Amino acid sequence: MQNNITLVVPCMGRLEHLQASMPLMAARFPCVVVDYLCPQHAGDWVLSQMEHWPYSHVAVVRVSRLFSPYFNLSRARNLGALAVETECVAFIDADMLIEVPRFGQSRQAKLQENSFVVFDGRGGKGHSGFLCCRVDDFWRAEGYEVASKGYGCEDTQMQRKLEHLGLQRQT
Predict the structure, then answer these.
(1) Sequence-ordered list of residues with C-beta below 8 angstroms from that of 59, at least 6 positions apart, any chain
(2) Separation between Cα atoms, residue 171 and residue 157, nearest integer Å
(3) What is the Cα–Cα distance from 52 to 32, expressed in whole angstroms?
(4) In which order are the strands placed within the sheet that holds 31-36?
(5) Please, what is the Cα angle at 100 between 16 and 57, to 5 degrees?
(6) pLDDT at 127
(7) Tens digit of pLDDT for each residue in 52-93?
(8) Model-level pTM?
């Protein structure tokens, strides 16, 4: 596969969203699904579907209750990033459909030097919660802040960390 972007998709209790989005994602990108204490066993479902995605690299990272007793989106994204083997990583939510025109049309294009890509949420439901950057830049920024609580602030914090490194935001 010539794609230089791996999608990292945390999932806890969103199996129905993952079932809708995963066939689209796996047809186009290498994927890492983070089964984060998912009561619906998203990782098992992904592994059972692998025969339908024979040309894609799909991995599952499982988080046990012993490691983390509650859902932490930042930790889930960081754990997924550890399994990425491509130059770039895109963090998305399980309910995001990868038919967003700007990303879908440019998926083979490399990120501009010293930049990262976000969708600002103006595209409607399923278009926010997306960040794409080079893996090296992600780790230089030390990943998502795991002390973040709730939803939304982790994306803003990560963007600020990347900007602090001198990277430009692309939308």
Answers:
(1) 31, 32, 33, 83
(2) 17
(3) 16
(4) 58-63, 31-36, 5-11, 88-91, 131-134, 115-118, 168-170
(5) 65
(6) 53
(7) 887 778 999 999 887 777 889 999 999 999 999 999 999 998
(8) 0.88
